[in-house]
Automatic annotation (TrEMBL):
CDD domains in the cross-refs: NUDIX_Cfim25_Nudt21
Subunit structure of this chain's protein: Homodimer. Component of the cleavage factor Im (CFIm) complex.
Statement: the UniProt record of this protein carries the keyword Nucleus: yes
Major localisation: nucleus
Family: Belongs to the Nudix hydrolase family. CPSF5 subfamily.
Keywords: mRNA processing, Nucleus, RNA-binding
Species name: Hibiscus sabdariffa (roselle)
UniProt key word RNA-binding: yes
InterPro entries: Cleav_polyA_spec_factor_su5, NUDIX_hydrolase-like_dom_sf, NUDIX_hydrolase_dom
One Pfam family recorded for the sequence: NUDIX_2
Domain Nudix hydrolase: residue ranges: 46-172
Protein name in UniProt: Pre-mRNA cleavage factor Im 25 kDa subunit
Location in or out of the cell: Nucleus
């Protein structure tokens, strides 16, 4: 039997969460976001975005740290890469922007691990697929999900207009109506890993 790669997880209570200045969204509506995406596509081509899967443990079960905006919108921390930007360095930049404290000494040492999933946006719509449809020759976005290995203790600063919530794998699983298809796919993406809960 093949050995599963091991991911060490630490209790949610190990981590410190504070607030920082709000991070205002560039778009107030989905239509605005898609319109801006269309404009950026004309200027730069296909959008590449990177997002982080941050795993902690709570009640002896893996939980994912997810940004909540308002009451019903959830997303992984991350965002769009700059043209030509390295994926790993770009994800570290986005994580520091979204969750890094203002004091550089307290910024977590982001250990970017495996790319565990890729999603494609065929057109300027709010629909993404875990494959690029064969008739699509010019997809508008490729989104890559990376597993990020957290240290035993870390310090996160969350913008005041966001919440950072820990959501269990069993709550995410098969739950696109609440979390969307990308987030609800995470339990399957992580099923090839063995999670070792470290008690501290």
């Amino acid at each position: 039997m093949a050995t599963l790669p091991v991911v060490y997880t630490y209790p949610l209570s190990n981590y410190t969460f504070v607030k920082k200045e709000p991070k205002l969204d560039k778009d107030t509506t989905l239509a605005d976001r898609l319109a801006r995406m269309k404009l950026m596509y004309r200027q730069e081509g296909m959008r590449t975005s990177v997002e982080a899967i941050l795993v902690v443990q709570e009640h002896n079960h893996p939980h994912i740290l997810i940004l909540q905006i308002g009451n019903t919108f959830f997303k992984l921390p991350g965002g769009r890469l700059r043209p030509g930007e390295n994926e790993i360095e770009g994800l570290k930049r986005k994580l520091t922007s979204k969750l890094g404290p203002t004091l550089p000494a307290l910024v977590p040492d982001w250990k970017i691990g495996e790319c565990v999933g890729m999603w494609w946006r065929p057109d300027f719509e709010n629909v993404m697929y875990p494959y690029c449809p064969p008739h699509i020759t010019r997809p508008k976005e490729c989104k890559k999900l990376f597993l990020v290995h957290l240290s035993e203790k870390d310090y996160f600063a969350v913008p005041t207009n966001f919440k950072l919530v820990a959501v269990s794998l069993f709550e995410l699983y098969d739950n696109p109506q609440n979390f969307g298809y990308v987030l609800s796919s995470i339990p399957q993406l992580l099923s090839r890993f063995k999670f070792n809960a470290v008690a501290t």
